[in-house]
Amino acid sequence: MRIKVISPDIITYGAMVIGGVLREKGYDVSISRFIEDTDTDILLFSLYSTQHLFDDRIKKAIKSQKERGGRCYIGGPVSSHPAMVLGELSPDAVVVGEGEVTTPRLVRDGPSPGIQGVAYRGEDGMLNCGPSPPAPMERPLPLIPSDIGAQNVRGANVYIETHRGCIGGCGFCQVPRYFGQEIRSRSIESILTEVQAFKDAGAHRISISGGTGSLYASEQGRMNVPAFVELLAGIAGIMGRKNLSSPDIRVDCITDEVLDAIRDYTIGWVFFGIESGSETILKKMRKGATVDQVREAVTRCRDHGLKVAGSFIVGYPGETQHDYQKTKDLIEELSLDDVFVSAAEPIPGTPLADLVLSTPSDENPVYVPHTGEYKALGLSVAEARAFDLMLHADLNKPVFSMADDRTFDLYLAEVRKQGSDIRRATECILRYSE
Asked: Looking at residue 262, what DSSP letter applies?
């Protein structure tokens, strides 16, 4: 049986893992980032963004596959709301949650009530067999594409998974809802074997992921610092210290030893999800961290010779101009080395999505027209704040960066796209929640 795995535009690690699992079962499996009409028995889409549900290229490929008599299944993070996937894309079935156990059964037998972790249309409407069982953390090597060295995901060729789960409960994040809050870690031996395979296939920079990198091998919420240090040292021994990054860490999940290991074995950057300078909004986000903890974490990173980047979310339902000003003030105070700004996007299955559903559009910042200094640009409040914060962050980086017309236009196009995407996702969630 021939199976084609497509991960649109970027071949995600999850898609490679599923490809490897199916290959180990004896199937003829190929993997691609290109959405194309292809002659195969099963077309398996691995979708990581809600925006994929509106992609005409994907819809056309699914339609062609079904017209030929082939089967089409969809998995990935979009599966957290299977009714949306079935309604927008009409595949034969959706793999709900982790796919390592469910996907081989679905490929072999087709959708049926006996397969946990599958949703599909039956005679009486959608049949949802519940989430997939938790996958074992030891598995076959991923199906690595031959051009992995040409892929760029935030500076790395691939983000490999060291563990699943996150002790946090951020309301905008899908990780604890998709993988749970219990940490499940892979063995260092299997990770290093995989890293070597990626290097042999042409990867030259690797990043590690898993929600919060320093939670690797932790138990009951307590970090296993020696294991994390050993992990970074082992990967750096294969890839080289300038070819490894371990960016995503919570401000309350660092120690001196963790920061020293990041300095000694990686490119020397830490990426914090700071999100807001307002304690009120941080509580609404369920962030579980305070502004003072952010300040302390940034100071400690710099004491260890590390560069610090931060992400911020604006336009969260309930965010006032006073809350937003606190975020601007914090960026000015911290003078971060890099800043990433986004408007609040409701990902299906998260508390933020529930909050958006209960917020009238005339109170949702992504719909409310901006009436301040950017009024002539026709932006919403959320878009205007994102645009303003991008410009403000550039002015407050350690290395001064003056915004020119090109930067202005790039940021303006970015926030307009964010706003359009978020409104489209919001309306889709509303449509399938009625």
From this structure: H
